[in-house]
Amino acid sequence: MARVLSLVLLLATLASILPPSASQAATRCEYPRHAGHGYKHPVGVRKVVVDAGGAGDFTSIQQAVDSVPVNNTVRVIMQINAGTYSNKLDHERARREKVLVPASKPYITFHGAGRDVTVVEWHDRASDRGPDGQPLRTYNTASVTVLSNFFTAKNISFKPRSTVQEQTK
Ligand SMILES: *[C@@H]1O[C@H](CO)[C@@H](O)[C@H](O)[C@H]1NC(C)=O
Ligand SMILES: *[C@@H]1O[C@H](CO)[C@@H](O)[C@H](O)[C@H]1NC(C)=O
C-alpha cells in the first residue's frame, strides 16, 4: 500500500512538472522568459536516441542520462523508441535499470514514441532483497527519480509490474 502511495506521489510529481500545454512544446522554449528563480535558457539542443533493441545511441534510459555532462547547459532530448524498458533479467540489473536523473543534470527531456508503446516498467517488491541481503524498503522501489530542474517527459508511461499483479490476485 505504501508503495502504491509512493507511485501516486511519483505520478503526481510528474504531472505537476508536466502541464500538458508545456509538454507539447518541449522542443521549443517552453518556459516564459521571466520564469524566475534562476531559470537559464538552455544554450542549444542535443538529441540522443534510446532504443531497447540496439538501434539507437543507447539501449537504456539510464545510459543516456549518464552521458549527459554534469552542469549540463543544453536541452537534451532523449528520443525513447517504442519498447519496454524494464528490469526482468535479475535483481542486480533491476536496480541498475531504475532511472535516476541527478540534480546536476538539468534540461533533460524524455520523449517516448507514445504512451502505449514506450513504457518504463519495473518489477520489484518491498520484500525483494537488496545487495546486503536485507529486504528492500518500499522507498527504494520507485522506478524513476528526477532530482533535476527543467525536466520534461511526454508520450511515455511509467508503471510497476508487481503492483498490477498484486491487484489482480
Ligand atoms: C558544477 O557546478 C557546481 C556549482 O556551480 C560546481 O561547484 C561544480 O564544480 C561544477 N562541476 C563540474 C564538473 O563542472
Ligand atoms: C505521441 O504519440 C502518439 C501515438 O501514441 C503520436 O501520434 C504523437 O505524434 C506523439 N506526439 C509526440 C509529441 O511525440
TrEMBL record:
<dbReference type="InterPro" id="IPR012334">
    <property type="entry name" value="Pectin_lyas_fold"/>
</dbReference>
<comment type="similarity">
    <text>Belongs to the pectinesterase family.</text>
</comment>
<keyword id="KW-0063">Aspartyl esterase</keyword>
<feature type="signal peptide">
    <location>
        <begin position="1"/>
        <end position="23"/>
    </location>
</feature>
<keyword id="KW-0378">Hydrolase</keyword>
<dbReference type="Pfam" id="PF01095">
    <property type="entry name" value="Pectinesterase"/>
</dbReference>
<feature type="domain" description="Pectinesterase catalytic">
    <location>
        <begin position="48"/>
        <end position="161"/>
    </location>
</feature>
<keyword id="KW-0732">Signal</keyword>
<comment type="pathway">
    <text>Glycan metabolism; pectin degradation; 2-dehydro-3-deoxy-D-gluconate from pectin: step 1/5.</text>
</comment>
<dbReference type="GO" id="GO:0045490">
    <property type="term" value="P:pectin catabolic process"/>
</dbReference>
<dbReference type="InterPro" id="IPR011050">
    <property type="entry name" value="Pectin_lyase_fold/virulence"/>
</dbReference>
<dbReference type="InterPro" id="IPR000070">
    <property type="entry name" value="Pectinesterase_cat"/>
</dbReference>
<dbReference type="GO" id="GO:0030599">
    <property type="term" value="F:pectinesterase activity"/>
</dbReference>
<protein>
    <recommendedName>
        <fullName>pectinesterase</fullName>
        <ecNumber>3.1.1.11</ecNumber>
    </recommendedName>
</protein>
<dbReference type="GO" id="GO:0042545">
    <property type="term" value="P:cell wall modification"/>
</dbReference>
